[in-house]
Design a protein that fits this description.
This protein has about 210 residues and is of the alpha/beta class. It has six helices and nine strands, in the order αβαβαβββαβαβαββ. The protein has a nine-stranded mixed beta sheet with strand order 3-4-5-2-1-6-7-9-8, with helices on both faces.
């Protein structure tokens, strides 16, 4: 999926993928953890984590989304070039702006928990294996909390894309012990258009 797709969505305000509600899965993140949020957008989940004393690190392609998030916090970040990315820093939060695949282990540092509510499901199938491999290599030893959806992909296009449970096993079992925490039909369906099931996963690193 081209970068221009996401830049256009943010610039046009077509951000139906942005979730303003706080996900109940956040209860699985302990207070004071160092949490990585890939493809973070301007998620309010990050603010909830900050309020619980967590340190948050995110990466997001859209500079507009990053700027809007710090505006929502009412803080002015320190902005500096960091390798191929731009780094926005404020107390207890660092957001890298640019391509997820350009982020390095050294930039990210040690992570306790990966919170993936909107990253994997935003990627088409031909990118998801590469993404999962890169994510696991960036966060050795970290627990991952992952949200996916299952629905008839032929009825509606992503994102969020439908990801069968078998694909989670194929892409993550080499690196993680996989546990399905909860599975529930979405009330009203996905985008109000198609029946869908939301799956919540816990991935425990084997490293």
């Amino acid at each position: 999926m081209e970068h221009t797709f996401w830049h256009d969505k943010w610039e046009k305000g077509e951000i139906g993928f942005h979730q303003s509600d706080i996900h109940p899965m956040l209860s699985g993140i302990g207070d004071g953890c160092r949490v990585f949020v890939p493809l973070c957008g301007k998620s309010n989940d990050m603010t909830f984590m900050l309020e619980r004393g967590c340190e948050v690190v995110g990466v997001e392609l859209s500079q507009l989304a990053v700027s809007q998030y710090f505006e929502s916090l009412g803080v002015t970040p320190v902005i500096e070039e960091c390798g191929k990315l731009m780094r926005y820093t404020a107390p207890d939060i660092t957001l890298y702006c640019g391509d997820f695949f350009a982020l390095t282990l050294e930039q990210l540092g040690t992570i306790d928990v990966v919170y993936d509510r909107a990253a994997l499901v935003a990627l088409p199938q031909d990118m998801r294996k590469q993404y999962s491999q890169r994510l696991c290599s960036l966060t050795p030893g970290a627990k991952q909390l992952l949200v996916t959806f299952e629905y008839d992909q032929s009825l509606i296009g992503g994102p969020p894309f439908a990801i069968p449970s078998e694909e989670i096993q194929q892409n993550y079992s080499k690196y993680c012990t996989i546990t399905l925490l909860h599975s529930e039909a979405l009330e009203g369906g996905l985008k109000g258009k198609v029946p869908a099931v939301e799956n919540l996963w816990s991935l425990t690193s084997k490293g």
